[in-house]
Amino acid sequence: MPEHLQNAAENILNTIVENIANNVPKQTSVRFSEEQNTVPTQMNKLVGRQKSIHKILGGGKSADVLLWRNKKISSSVLTGATATWVLFEWLQYNILTILCFALVIGMLIQFLWSNASDMLSRSPSQVPRLVLPEELFINIAVCIGAQINQFLGFIQDVACGRNLRQSLVVVVSLWAAAVIGSWCNFLTVLYIGFVCAHTLPVLYEKYEDQVDDFVYNLIGQLQNRYRKVDASVFSKMAKGKL
């Protein structure tokens, strides 16, 4: 009985792989058991990528942090984000309280620094001052504005277009985001995304082959499901007049 189930599962996977291979140009269909020897490496890469994870993430210091090239910096960033989330979410601090406390501590440090020379009978020393460059705020505003305009442009292009499938995908994605937002607040969603950004890439880089094989098989099954829905629902809806 177990051998029968194993053979049935292998036949299903073979069918999935053959269907995917037939739809890929310049590729031949293969059996699942021969996939490692005959299927090119490019097909097994997640979403058909050809670059390394480090290059996809930018290839700079940010990619090094996300991939834990320097464990001290990566752990410090993740610890700081966790401490911030704990302060605002668990301890119920707000941004005004934290800002006021930080300003008070800074003023005390500068006060003690400026009066230390008189107390210790030393020559007066210049107190360091914190000045943030204006270019920093300009770059942040430009970056945020560009991303918002790009997102709004994409939403409007989808709404004004006649691609019903793409519109349904966007609507379902927004609905899923709304459901997730009802479960937790915006700060928690940001923290979850931050933790995923600092854990999923390094885990994928470590277990790349296993993840690629799993996603490769899952995409094949989803494509078969989508073809059935497309043939029975979407193709008929496209013929009608909206």
Question: What does this protein look like?
Answer:
By secondary structure, the chain is mainly alpha-helical. Helices cover 76% and strands 0% of the residues. The protein is built from eleven helices and no strands. It has helices at 2-23, 35-38, 41-44, 53-56, 61-66, 71-90, 95-119, 134-160, 164-183, 186-206, 208-239. Helix 6 packs antiparallel against helix 10 (186-206). The longest helix has 32 residues, at 208-239. The protein starts with a helix and ends with a helix. The model is unreliable at 1-9 and 23-44 (pLDDT under 50).
Give the helix/strand layout.
Blueprint lengths: L1 H22 L11 H4 L2 H4 L8 H4 L4 H6 L4 H20 L4 H25 L14 H27 L3 H20 L2 H21 L1 H32 L3
Helix pairs in contact: 1-11, 6-10
Strand content: under 5%
What is the averaged pLDDT score? 76
What separation lies between the terminal Cα atoms?
A: 52 Å
Radius of gyration: 27 Å
The biggest beta sheet reads: none
Globally, the shape reads elongated
Q: Helix/strand-derived class?
A: mainly alpha
Which consecutive residue ranges, at least 5 long each, have pLDDT under 50? 1-9, 23-44
What's the total number of strands? 0
Q: How do the helices and strands follow one another from N- to C-terminus?
A: HHHHHHHHHHH
Number of helices: 11
